[in-house]
């Protein structure tokens, strides 16, 4: 199956360090599903302040990672002219559950699926795992908009 590295993801998304959270996208089923890898490191930008003695990846960054993985999946499946000069914005999070803390150093694996699209609006669901243990899950929607 197809696999995208960080440089290829940079070609698809407007995110840059330190906010580009996903490192790989693989097991890609065009416009349907993919798996993303997030390397949660001891020197990740959020560790210093969340929380210094007991670092935990903030839940909002797990949701952001889901969104980035979904945006990369969608952009990768669309014709480049469809997403060129566009941005993908999170519209809403219907459900997000954080089941276990994500503690650095680990590989956070995100399994995402597009469950509906209508024009420029997409709905997704995802689950996050560390060592096959479910850490979080969410359902969210996003839209593709012009950069201007």
Name of the CATH class = Alpha Beta
Proper CATH architecture: Roll
Q: How would you describe the oligomerization state of the chains in this entry?
A: single chain
Give the proportion of residues in helices: 10-25%
What would the average pLDDT be, to the nearest integer? Answer: 94
CATH superfamily: Hotdog Thioesterase
Q: How many structural domains does the protein architecture include? A: 1
Shape designation: globular
Strand order of the largest sheet: 1-2-3-5-6-7-4
- Secondary structure category: alpha+beta
Q: β content, as a range?
A: 35-45%
Number of strands: 7
Radius of gyration: 15 Å
Task: Report the major sheet.
Answer: 7 strands, antiparallel
Cα(first) to Cα(last) distance is: 35 Å
Order of helices and strands: EHEEHHEEEE
User: Which fold does the CATH topology refer to?
Assistant: Thiol Ester Dehydrase, Chain A
Report on this model:
The structure is a single chain. The protein is α+β, with helices and mostly antiparallel strands and 148 residues long. It has a single domain, classed as Hotdog Thioesterase (Thiol Ester Dehydrase, Chain A), CATH 3.10.129. Helix content is 20%, strand content 45%. The chain has three helices and seven strands. A seven-stranded antiparallel beta sheet has the order 1-2-3-5-6-7-4. The model has no long low-confidence stretch (mean pLDDT 94).
Features of the shown structure:
single chain, seven-stranded antiparallel β-sheet, alpha+beta
